[in-house]
Structures are given as C-alpha cells and as structure tokens.
Amino acid sequence: xxxxxxxxxxxxxxxxxxxxxxxxxxxxxxxxxxxxxxxxxxxxxxxxxxxxxxxxxxxxxxxxxxxxxxxxxxxxxxxxxxxxxxxxxxxxxxxxxxxxxxxxxxxxxxxxxxxxxxxxxxxxxxxxxxxxxxxxxxxxxxxxxxxxxxxxxxxxxxxxxxxxxxxxxxxxxxxxxxxxxxxxxxxxxxxxxxxxxxxxxxxxxxxxxxxxxxxxxxxxxxxxxxxxxxxxxxxxxxxxxxxxxxxxxxxxxxxxxxxxxxxxxxxxxxxxxxxxxxxxxxxxxxxxxxxxxxxxxxxxxxxxxxxxxxxxxxxxxxxxxxxxxxxxxxxxxxxxxxxxxxxxxxxxxxxxxxxxxxxxxxxxxxxx
Length: 368
Ligand SMILES: [Zn+2]
Fold this sequence. Notes:
CATH class: Alpha Beta
Oligomer: single chain
Bound molecules: zinc ion
Number of strands: 10
Helix content: 25-40%
Distance between the termini: 32 Å
Number of domains: 1
CATH architecture: Alpha-Beta Barrel
Order of helices and strands: HEHEHEEEHHEHEEHEHHEHH
Strand content: 5-15%
C-alpha cells in the first residue's frame, strides 16, 4: 500500500516538480558542458564510471573530447599519435552519452596548435610541407618568450593539399563519434599569414582566418554538422586589455564579421569573468562561456550568462547558449581530483573539480 501511495505521490507531485526544474534549467542554460582531453585506454573504465556517477546526476548535457590524433584513424594510419583510442573504445563513450542524453562532440585542433613546446604535432611531422613557418625550427628546450615568437606551429590554410588530409580525419572522427558537431579548436593562432609563406604573405590575416573557418564550416555542413571553435582570435586584445592569449594581437579579430553566423563560439576566460559573450551574441553568433579552474570566476560567469540571457532582446536571447567548462590535464586527473575532493574536504588539487562543481551548483541555484 505504501508503495502504491508513494508511486502516486511521485507521479502526481514529485515527478512534475523534477521535470519543471529540468525544463527551467534547460531554458536558462541550454548547454551545460565539459571540454576535456579524450581519456586513454587504460583509464577509460574509470572515466566512464565517473561520468555516470558524477556528471550525469549534475545534469551535464554536452561533452567535447579533445581527440586530436589519438584515435586509430583508418583513413590516415600514418597520423595516429601515441595514446590512441580504438573504435570499440569510442563506441563505449558514444553509448554512455546516448543513454544519458549527452551531446558528444569530438575535437581536433585545426590551423593552430600543430606543435607544443619541443614537440611537433603529428600532422606537420608527417607532412612538413603543410607548415606555415618551415623556417622556424622547434627548439631542443622550449622557452617563452623566444626570438621566433613561437608558441605553436600552424598549418598553412592555403596549402592546396592540407584540407584533403584534415577533412578525412574530421569525417572519420565525426562518423565514429556519431556526432552532429565538431570542435576545430583554432585558438591562439599566432602564426598566420606569415611574411615568408609563398601563399599567405601579404594577405589580410582576418580574411585568412575567416576563410579557414568558413571552409571547415562548409565541409561540416555537407553532413549537417555544426562547427565549434574557441573565440579568442575573434576578439581584439590590445584596446580591450584582454591580451594576446585570450584575444588577438595579430589583427584576426575583424574575422568576427566575416564568419558564418552558425559557427558556435566557446569563449574562454579563466582569470576574470570578462563579459565578451555579449560581443559574440550581438554579432549574431551563438556563444558559451568557457571557465576553467577558479570557482569564484566560474560562479560569476554562470551568473553573467543567466543575466545576459534574461536581459537580451528576443532576437539575441538564444545566442547565449550556456557554459562549457574546460579542463587542461589528462582526463583521469579530473577524475582523481573529484574523488579525492569528496574524501577530503580540504583537498583542492588543480581546482578543476571545484570549478566544475561551482558551475553545476550555480546553475541549479539559478534554475530554482
Ligand atoms: Zn600560408
């Protein structure tokens, strides 16, 4: 009898309340995301348990996995990096996300981030002809700043053969992820339109950047897939004081008026809650703010996003999509940080877990 009463109570009162809360959350923050490095084979089990136990109950609905070249690509086995996932492993992630209504989006860094410190990325290692700055040698010991202004290598967006290769990878990874969107990175592109590149020299850097965005976007659109990118190259860095990392010092920012309006912008700011989502949204671009590891900043960013959305005209409102938290460590480090934080209230680690919890908690609070 008790069971019947509880079932009736649940059906009549509790379930609709939960539904109402979720739909309010959905209307306030349509995107509640995590951007993270793809897990490695040996820790995949732990990662999947973590997602199901810790992120699903907190109502995560979007997960961007930075795969780069760490997948057993059949189209280009020569580009497979050192810790690749198999197709079967990816399918386990896909199944978990489907079951829990999480939109799963693969990422491969295109254009920039083709090297890191002393390490040349797979694309330029195998295809050095795609290098925008072949005259810049990767140092034995990397230091910033350096005479070459080398942060990361870029590929040349005007090389006639580069898209054939990278689009094979994009198509294959989107197929195996069963994805309706792809994240192309495209952040912190310092090398673009280099004076010594025979194809790019003298060209407008904003047009070069926008051209590459459009090209990738158009390719994805053939299969009804959406392009996501980081927003930093579309913001001006000097006048705004945002600086050369989270905004542009090399005149790419005018590309904000040149790219297609259906490109989704992940607007990352980690140290301050900069209000740049307003710029993107009012340009007609859909934007999610992307925090990292400072719970105070993250909390403010979540509140800002809700406020922007509520205060916006009806034409702009839906351009404020929500929040996608970033993590910049191997995936398993977030998992370990989460469980250790739960066991020891004083443990903070990198702050990534505390920030993620702040994101979910603030969203829940605002949706009450
Ligand atoms: Zn070039």
